[in-house]
Amino acid sequence: MTTAPALAPLVARTVTISDPGPLLELLPPGPALAWVRRGEGLVGWGEAMRVTGTGAERFTSAKRAWAEVASRSVIRDEVRLPGTGPVAFGSFAFSPDSAAGGVLIVPEVVVGHRAGTWWLTTITADRAIPAPVQLTRHERATQAPADTEFTPGARAPQEWKAAVAEVIERIEAGQVEKVVLARDVVARTAQDVDPRDVLSLLAGDYPNCWTFSVDGLLGATPEMLVKLERGLVTSRVLAGTIRRTQNDEQDLALAASLARSSKDLEEHEYAVRSVADALAPHCTTTNVPDSPFVLHLPNVMHLATDVTGVLADGTSSLDLAAALHPSAAVCGTPTPAAAELIAAVEGMDRGRYAGPVGWVDAAGDGEWGIALRSAQFDAEDPRRFRLFAGCGVVAGSDPEAELAESEAKLLPIKGALSR
Ligand SMILES: C=C(O[C@@H]1C=C(C(=O)O)C=C[C@H]1O)C(=O)O
User: Fold this and answer.
1) Residue 178 is a catalytic residue
2) Active site residue 263
3) What are the mean pLDDT values of the chain's consecutive 10-residue runs (419 residues total)?
4) CB of 249 within 8 A of CB of 394?
5) Domain Chorismate-utilising enzyme C-terminal, which positions (predicted)?
6) Which atom from ligand 1 is nearest to the alpha carbon of 373?
7) How far is CA 286 from CA 196, 289, 363, in A?
8) Which of 183, 202, 306, 391 is the pocket-test mutation for ligand 1 (most atoms within 8 Å of CB)?
9) Whether domain 2-417 has CATH 3.40.50.720
10) From ligand 1's centre to the CA of 388, what distance in Å?
11) Distance (Å, rounded) from C-alpha 388 to C-alpha 407?
C-alpha cells in the first residue's frame, strides 16, 4: 500500500449552509468527486488525502487506513448526519488481478444535501488551515458532444457473442451456474469533454440512479451494493433485464413477462442469495422479500430486490462493500468458478467497472454502488473513454439477445458522450 501524504490526522469542520443550488453545478473545474441521486448526496473537490491499494489487498489496505485516519481526526461537526464530517470517496477494481487497484480520496471541500439540509465540510491534513471556500455555480452543458465515434474495445460484437456461447456451453456442461460477461467500447469525442457535463446529463436523464464520479470513473448506476446508515443496512440487488420499447403499454406487458421469466428469476435468485449470505454474518436480522419488483429505467427494466438488515457489529460500510464484492449480479455463481471463467474468456481488464464505488464517513456510514453504466476517462486524453456493459449468462441465454441487452445498458453513458 502506498499513501501520500503518510496518514496525517485530518481536521474537518462541517457547518450548515443555505441551499447553494444543484450540487453538481458547484463542482469547480478539475477532478470531480460526486455521489448524487435526485439532487441529494455529496460532491467534493481538492485532495486532502489519497490512499491507494493493489491486488487482493486493495480493500484491506483502504479499510485499515480509513479506520486509522477516522479515529485520529479532529472533527467539528454541527450537522451530524451520515456524510457529514470527513468523508472518503472510493473506487475499487473488480478483479484482484487488475492494475487498477483501489483508491480512497478525501476531498478538501465537500458539499452535501439531504432532506432539506445542506452542509459544507472543509478538510485538511497536517493541521493545515483550510482555505476559505466560495461556492460558485457553474452552468453545465445541456447537450452531449456531437460527432463522437464508438469502436469495439477488447472484443468485436461477433467475438463477444462467441464468448457468450462458450460460457453457455460451460454452464450446460455443469461447470458453473451463472457468469456475468462484460464487454468494453471505446468512445472518441471530437472535443475535450468536461466530466461535469457528463455527470449533469446522466443525473438529469437517470434520476433513479446514483450518479458518481471518483478518480475518472463516471457513471449512473441503478445498483446499490450496500448502504449503511446508523446501523441499518440496505442493498438493492438487480439481475434480470429487459430492454424498453418506448411504448408504455408494450413495456408494461414486458415488465409482466420479466417478472414471470424463469430464466431471469433464476439469475436474480443467485444474485439475491449471494448478497443475503454475505450480509448475514454482520447482521442480527436480515429481510429478504419473497419476490422481486420491476425497476423501470428509461433504457431497461430490471428485476430488483431490496435486502435490508440490522448491523450486529461495528462493521463500516466499506467493510461491508468489501465483503459483498463481487456479488453474483456482476460475477456469477459459484463465485470462484465464475471469476475464473470471466478472466479466461472476457479478454479484458475490467478496471474499476463493476467494482464498488461510493463514499464512507468517519462513523463508517456510507453508500457503495456497483460501478455500472459507466465510463473510465483517460487521464492522458480528454477525448478518449472506455465504456462497459455486462450481462448475466445462465442456461437458456442467447448470445444475440445478450449483445442487444449490453447495447441497451450502454445507452445512458453513450448518450452522455454523444448527441
Ligand atoms: C453487469 C451489468 O449489469 C448487471 C447485470 C444485470 C443482468 O444481467 O440482468 C442487471 C443488472 C446488473 O446487476 C452492467 O450493467 O454492466
Assistant:
1) yes
2) no
3) 64 97 97 98 97 96 96 96 98 98 98 98 90 94 96 98 98 97 98 97 98 98 98 97 95 97 94 96 97 97 98 96 97 97 98 98 98 95 97 96 98 97
4) no
5) 158-409
6) 15
7) 38, 10, 22
8) 391
9) no
10) 11
11) 10
